[in-house]
Specification:
Layout lengths: L3 E7 L2 E7 L11 E4 L5 E3 L1 E8 L2 E7 L10 E4 L5 E6 L6 H6 L8 E5 L2 E7 L5 E7 L3 E5 L1 E2 L4 E7 L6 E8 L2 E5 L14 E2 L24 E4 L1 H5 L12 H6 L2 H5 L3 E4 L3 E3 L17 E7 L10 H17 L3 E6 L11 H5 L28 H17 L4 E4 L7 H14 L4 E4 L26 E3 L1 H7 L19 H8 L19 E3 L9 H8 L5 H17 L3 E5 L19 H4 L3 H6 L1 H16 L8 H7 E6 L3 E6 L11 E6 L5 E4 L6 E4 L10 E2 L3 E4 L3 E6 L1
Helix pairs in contact: 7-8, 12-15
């Protein structure tokens, strides 16, 4: 089959691609027909390149092509092919020429009229299509920046709409990328009046500094879908709002897996499929499968707001897991219909890249892409009163965008949490511009998941038999001590260093990869469940007491298992659901965890913001590769104790330390923890096997 495509890559440059089947039928010379004016423009062949399976012509003209006209490329024979938009939309000229960063985009409702605005400088025509009893089309007009606008009189509340966009002789209908309400499964955007939605009455919980936070990760569905869950609305926003477990646990913030509208779950039959939600479909619309009625555009908004307000009433901050690095499907997402190729990254050969592993990469450094991300963050901050954002694959985004996000958060509250996955994944963006761990010093108020902490304490993520410090590899004890000190001030692991401990999000498990329990069952298969539980409690204590921000995966405190499944993002409820019988079965271990959080909260010396304070007050030593002693010295100004000594016994047998402990009291041992003294000490301290002991003076 003959395949012939032509692309406008610059104002004076066209790329013509012809497959082998079409080579014989294409004959120069070439010219362009401006279908808008009727003008004929002669083209010159600048270069001919043989490709595998075809041939590429690089064609040029004198002067410039008005790219929002409609063109057809012809030759001396029968060739007629539309000129499509190519690399021109990815040039710096295009970015500057059509910068509309200050424009207000989206749907703006009033009872008397509704205004629609969309950015598409490459389109030759755009209409808003309203779907009521019948289909109605309203033409839009554009300005020099490429903003198309129309105001339609009348009350359009609950009316469905889409945009019909014409460019390069192609017509597509797309939903509104700035849409805030939707039909089931996102087929249409919907006009709504946000003033009629559930008001958020409870104030945002406040913390004095980011290291005061203890983050607890949950999935709305996982946490409430199991038959043992003590809720009525299983797997839904309202189900999570029914629980008081998180309030009683002692954490400060709940990080919720994506709850913007995502693909992979049929909203009309949500229990028939499963997905974590990292498949963005509508960035500013709540997911419908968590609502009681996904066909009602107000239900998902109101029920999400009820959940957030309930968590705020309980004193818990709400963190949204956001995925701005890729979309679910490049060809069906509105971006490609609005400005082809602009929103995505491409390599030098002109092919879309896939560093995310999801088929596309968002070009966050382009001005209107950055605007979209910033506008989305601002919308969630103000309309839903969120308390933080966790950025999926943050290293694929650029530093400037992330620092701008930080400024937006600071304008609301400087202690809104902002952190992400700063992995350095190869992407079409210079390394020095990537929002990675290695560039943390360029983002001093943005935190990162500390994968070195995870791998040193638990074990290698990629070699399941390589044990970490807590699973028996005490040769990692020096690295462990540095991690406890906040991973700042010197090179760690693969060479990164944090500017200050507040940049380190410390964790040993999250939704990705094995839970700690499942990993331990692989690498330490020869050990009893009792020993493995001790090891996991020890690892969790290290997360809680290390300098930085502790991060706990939902169920970690009661040894959550996913039955050996490493990445369960689309497995089933049987694999992912929280079994609440385990919560009751492990009450004593959960109480121990609560006590750890109580101790951390009671003393600010566990929560230093700067490397200078860590250097001044934190001392770390070890006992013959058997235990780590973590001492907070001269810290009376930060809490109720002048000195705190934390001992992590890494051995599966008791250790006895003989020295004078006069004036010290035990507040945590292998069985109990909290701020109430358990007993006074004399000249000896026994550390139980694989346990955390804390003494204070």
């Amino acid at each position: 089959m003959e395949k012939i495509y032509s692309y406008l890559d610059e104002h004076h440059k066209i790329t013509l691609l012809i497959n082998d089947a079409a080579k014989e039928s294409v004959r120069g010379p070439f010219s362009l027909i401006d279908k808008t004016t009727g003008e004929t423009i002669e083209l010159m062949v600048n270069k001919v390149t043989e490709l595998f399976g075809g041939i590429k012509y690089t064609l040029t003209i004198h002067g410039f092509i008005t790219f929002y006209h409609t063109f057809e490329l012809v030759d001396s024979g029968d060739l007629k092919t539309p000129l499509l938009l190519g690399g021109i939309t990815r040039t710096e000229w295009f970015d500057q020429q059509f910068d509309a960063s200050n424009a207000a985009l989206g749907m703006f409702y009033a009872p008397s009229q509704t205004t629609f605005r969309i950015w598409s400088p490459t389109a030759s025509q755009i209409s808003v299509i309203l779907y009521q009893d019948d289909e109605q089309s309203y033409d839009m007009t554009s300005n020099l920046n490429g903003i198309w606008k129309v105001t339609i009189p009348g009350d359009l509340e609950k009316v469905r709409y889409r945009y019909r966009i014409t460019q390069s002789q192609q017509v597509r209908e797309v939903t509104d990328p700035y849409g805030i309400a939707s039909t089931a499964n996102g087929t249409h955007s919907v006009v709504v009046d946000l003033r009629k939605t559930t008001p958020l009455l409870a104030p945002r919980p406040t913390i004095k500094q980011a290291t005061d936070a203890v983050i607890y990760e949950v999935s709305i569905r996982d946490f409430t879908i199991h038959e043992t869950a003590p809720v009525n609305h299983r797997g839904q926003y309202l189900g999570l709002a029914e629980l008081d477990y998180l309030k009683d646990l002692g954490v400060t913030h709940i990080q919720i897996l994506p709850f913007f509208d995502f693909e992979g779950v049929d909203e009309l039959a949500p229990t028939e499929s499963y997905n974590w939600g990292y498949n963005p479909s509508q960035y500013n619309v709540p997911e419908g499968s968590y609502a009681t009625d996904p066909t009602d555009p107000y239900a998902r908004i109101n029920e999400l707001k009820t959940l957030i307000d309930t968590l705020h009433e309980q004193g818990l901050g709400v963190i949204m897991d956001v995925v701005y690095n890729h979309v679910y499907e490049r060809w069906t997402f509105p971006f490609e219909g609005i400005v082809p190729t602009y929103f995505y990254r491409y390599n030098r050969d002109g092919f879309a890249t896939n560093s995310s592993g999801c088929g596309n990469d968002i070009a966050s450094d382009r001005r209107m892409v950055r605007k979209f991300i910033l506008d989305s963050v601002k919308f969630w901050l103000h309309e839903y009163k969120l308390d933080g954002f966790r950025f999926d694959l943050m290293g694929l985004l650029d530093i400037e965008t992330m620092n701008e996000v930080r400024k937006i958060c600071d304008a609301v509250d400087p202690n809104i949490l902002l952190y992400g996955e700063g992995w350095n994944i190869p992407v079409e963006l210079p390394e020095h511009k990537r929002a990675t761990l290695h560039n943390a010093h360029h983002m001093p108020r943005i935190s990162h998941f500390n994968d070195t902490f995870r791998d040193v304490i638990k074990g290698s993520t990629f070699d399941h038999l390589e044990r970490g410090l807590v699973l028996g590899n005490t040769g990692l004890i020096d690295k462990g001590k540095h991690l406890l000190a906040g991973s700042s001030g010197r090179v760690v692991g693969e060479g990164f260093k944090f500017f200050k401990p507040v940049q380190s999000v410390n964790y040993v498990e999250c939704h990705d990869n094995h839970t700690f329990w499942d990993r331990a069952k692989i690498s330490n298969a020869d050990e009893s469940d009792d020993i493995l539980r001790r090891r996991q409690l020890l690892a969790t204590a290290m997360v809680v007491f290390a300098q930085g921000i502790p991060f706990i995966h939902g169920g970690q405190e009661f040894f959550r298992t996913k039955f050996g499944v490493e990445n369960s993002y689309r497995d089933s409820d049987e694999i992912n659901a929280i079994d609440w019988a385990e919560v009751h079965r492990h009450k004593s271990e959960i109480d121990l965890f609560k006590g750890y959080l109580e101790i951390r909260k009671a003393h600010g010396a566990f929560r230093f913001q700067t490397s200078a304070l860590v250097k001044k007050h934190v001392q770390l030593s070890d006992y013959e590769n058997s235990a780590i002693e973590y001492v907070l010295k001269d810290v009376a100004a930060y809490g109720p104790y002048e000195e705190v000594r934390v001992f992590f016994n890494l051995k599966d047998y008791p250790l006895i330390i003989e020295e004078s402990f006069e004036g010290f009291s035990v507040i945590a041992d292998a069985e109990r923890s909290g701020i109430a003294p358990l007993r006074e000490l004399g000249d000896e301290l026994t550390l139980e096997p694989l346990s955390t002991t804390i003494i204070v003076k």
